[in-house]
Specification:
Blueprint (H helix, E strand, L loop, with lengths): L7 H7 L3 E5 L5 E4 L1 H7 L3 H4 L4 H4 L11 H15 L3 E2 L3 E2 L2 E2 L7 E2 L2 E10 L5 E10 L1 H8 L6 H46 L10 E7 L10 E8 L3 E8 L4 H21 L3 H12 L9 E8 L4 E7 L5 E3 L5 E3 L4 E2 L14 E4 L5 E5 L11 H14 L5 H12 L9 E7 L1
Parallel strand pairs: 13-16
Antiparallel strand pairs: 1-2, 1-8, 3-7, 4-7, 5-6, 7-8, 9-19, 10-11, 11-12, 12-13, 13-17, 14-15, 14-18, 18-19
Helix pairs in contact: 6-7, 7-8, 8-9, 10-11
Length: about 425
Amino acid sequence: MKDPQIDYAAVFRALPGMVALLTPDLVYADANEDFLRLVGRTREQLLGRYIFDVFPENPNDPAAAGMQETKASMLRVVTSGERETMALLRYDIEDSARPGHWVEHYWSPVNAPVLDADGEVTLIVHRVEEITELVRAGRGADTGEDGDGRRGEVLEAELYTRSRELQEVNERLRRAHAREREVALALQAAMLPAPTPVGHHRAAVRYRPAVGALNVCGDWYDLVDLHGDRIAVAVGDVVGHGLEAACVMGQLRSALSAAARVADGPARALDALGLYARHVPGAQSTTVVKVYIDWDTHTLAYSSAGHPPPALLHPDGSVTFLDRATDPPLGARPEHVPRPQARTAFTEGAVLVLYSDGLIERRDEDIDVGLARLADSLVRHGGSGPEEMADALLADLLPPTGSTDDTALVIIRL
C-alpha cells in the first residue's frame, strides 16, 4: 500500500488553535485559519510583514510590555535553536474595523524553532492560546454580583502577578547562564593562549565557542616542542559544558602536555592521560587525538581516543585522513590494553589539520559528509598559509550564524 500523499500546507491551515510561522527576521511567512480569525486579520495583511508592524504595542497603556517580551523570546529561539514557553502575556490588539480602538487580550504563547539540515533556524512556529475569555470569566463580569466580581479581579491579579514573577525568574536564570558563559570563556581563553613558535614551521590555531548556548569550553588544542626537529600536537573535546568542562579541559590539557614530553609516542601519551582521567570527575568519555611530527624523518606518528581523524593535505592536492589508530574515548577501554599507534610519511609542503567535531558534524548527517566537505575546502585553499587557511575553513564549514558546538582547529604547514 502506497503512503498517502499529504498536503501539509492544507494541514497547517486547518490546525486547531492559533499557529503562525515567522522568519528569523520576525516576518510572517504563514498563519493558519484560527490565527487569522482570532486576531481579526487577513492573510494578505500578515504575510511578508514584520510582526510588530502588524501588531504594535498599545500606545494607551504605558505599562505594556507584550511587544518587548515577545520579541526577546523569538530572538532567543533564533539564537539558541530551542523552544521557549512564555509566561501569561497581556498584548492588546487594535480593532482593524475601528482604528484607534484597542481590544484587551491575554495570551499564552509558545515559540519553537524549525531547523534545517545544518541545525540553523529557518522558521519560528508561534503557537498562541488566547485566554482572554478565561480571564474575563474569572472577573465574574457576567454575574453582576459585586462580591463575585471582586473575587474574580483578585484571582486575575494574582494569576497575572504569578506569571510576571515566573517571567522574572526565567530572565534572572538567563542572565546567570550568560554570566557563567562569560566566565567559562574567559577561563578557556586563559588556558588556550596563542602557541609558541614551532621552530621555522608555520602553524595556526583557532577556537570558536558555540553560539547562544552554554555548550562551550570543552574543546582544546595544544602544541609541544620536543627534542630535535619534532613537535607534538593535540586536539581534544571534553563531554559537558560551561565552567565544569573548562576546568576539566584545563586539567587534561596540562596532563597531556606533560605526558607528551616524556612518552615515547602518542599512544603512550594517551595511555598516561587515560589513567589520569579516571581520577578526574567529568573527564570520562573525553575524545582526543595526538600527533607527533618528526621533520628529520618526515613522518607522522598518531593515535586517537575516539576523536575525528586528522586530515593530511598532500602537495598534489589529495587528502588523506589519519584513521588507522582509532580507539575508544578516555575511560572507555581496559587499562591493560595498549592504545594503537600508526605512522605515515609526509612530503615537505603538506598541511596537517587537527580539529574537533564542531567543525564537521551536523545533525541528521553522516560524518562522512562532513569529512568530504572538509577535504573539499582544504583542496580549494591548499595554496594559502596556515592563518589564511584557518579562517577560510571556518568560513566554509561553520554556519554563518555560528555553530551549536564549540570548535578547536590546528593547522600546520609541514
